[in-house]
Amino acid sequence: MSTNADESRPAPTPALTGAELLRWYWTLAELSTLAREMGLPAGGGKVAVTARLAAALDGLPAPAAPAAPARRRAGRRLTAPVTGATVIPPGQNCSQVLRAYFVREIGPGFHFDAFMRDYIARHAGHTLAEAVAHWHATRARAAEPQEVGAQFEFNRFLRAWHAQHPDGARTEALAAWRAHRARPRD
User: Fold this and answer.
1) Is the pTM above the cut of 0.85?
2) Cis peptide before 61 (omega within 30 of 0)
3) Which pLDDT value is given to residue 70?
4) Model confidence over 74-125: pLDDT tens digits?
5) Sign of CA dihedral 68, 74, 80, 81
6) Distance CA 50, CA 44 (A)
7) Rounded distance between C-alpha atoms, residue 133 and residue 102, angstroms
8) Which residues belong to any copy of the DUF6434 domain (predicted)?
């Protein structure tokens, strides 16, 4: 954190340098607005837009765009009725048909968590009964605290704040967040 308590976050304008942009917290909406103002592509995630802006503000070429994710094959999607013997087709998504089946088999506590989303996406050719077994086999790991992705800075901050202030109120946490994001990152 900066030791200069009088320092305040600048406005997001084309007058910033790339280094200054990177020193502060910005919302994706602020970054996208600045990108459009500068004639840059505003699409993509926060990390991509920030990198694009920082390069443009410093007069550097835009960073290479990451390779587009492999598109899911548009194949047959499951329709009701499904059973435990039903095979997951390639490209199947976490649909309402699957949700209804899993709620019937597992109970009302079922939800598509990261373990189940990954299983459905990566296990074409397996049966729904195997997916139910996977759900039960992953419950212990699912109950453990999961790492919050770096792109979810607000969620990461709140988790850390509540760990340090277990009896803290939501209003206090939000005030701490506003103070945190108003300070430079260095």
Assistant:
1) no
2) no
3) 56
4) 557 899 999 999 999 999 999 999 999 999 999 999 999 989 999 999 999 9
5) negative
6) 10
7) 11
8) 80-137
3-state SS of the chain is CCCCCCCCCCCCCCCCCHHHHHHCCCCHHHHHHHHHHCCCCCCCCHHHHHHHHHHHHCCCCCCCCCCCCCCCCCCCCCCCCCCCCCECCCCCCCCHHHHHHHHHHHCCCCCCCHHHHHHHHHCCCCEHHHHHHHHHHCHHHHHCCCCCCCCCHHHHHHHHHHHHCCCCCHHHHHHHHHHHHCCCCC
The token pair at 7 is 């320092």
